[in-house]
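Here is the promised in-class demo. Please do not try to memorize the tokens; focus on the logic of going from shape to residues.
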């Protein structure tokens, strides 16, 4: 009986250590998720970011904002028109030729998008 109790006690102690490390890992993951959410909210408040040869890299968000409107608002100042445009949304990047925009095709943007004029 005493041996069974000792084995049970040791099993509970081992389980407790594992539970603490799992709890700490869970807390760290929750903290990181909170930080990521805060960064997404900050990006949402900032609107859309335009990188490249522009005067205004931050374009305020408005409902229905399009790529052409964002580039016009950013005021492109490059010596030559951009050759390519990269749009990054939620970590995924799509690259398109700039002539698509110049041909009249417009692309809706979302809050937090990053547009790179190359």
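The designed amino acids, position by position:
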């Amino acid at each position: 009986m005493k041996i069974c109790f000792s084995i049970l006690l040791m099993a509970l102690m081992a389980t407790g250590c594992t539970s603490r490390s799992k709890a700490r890992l869970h807390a760290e993951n929750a903290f990181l998720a909170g930080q990521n959410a805060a960064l997404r909210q900050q990006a949402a408040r900032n609107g859309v970011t335009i990188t490249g040869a522009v005067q205004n890299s931050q374009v305020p968000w408005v409902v229905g904002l399009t790529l052409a409107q964002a580039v016009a608002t950013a005021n492109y100042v490059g010596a030559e028109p951009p050759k390519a445009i990269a749009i990054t949304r939620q970590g995924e990047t799509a690259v398109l030729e700039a002539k698509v925009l110049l041909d009249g095709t417009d692309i809706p943007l979302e809050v937090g998008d990053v547009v790179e004029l190359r």
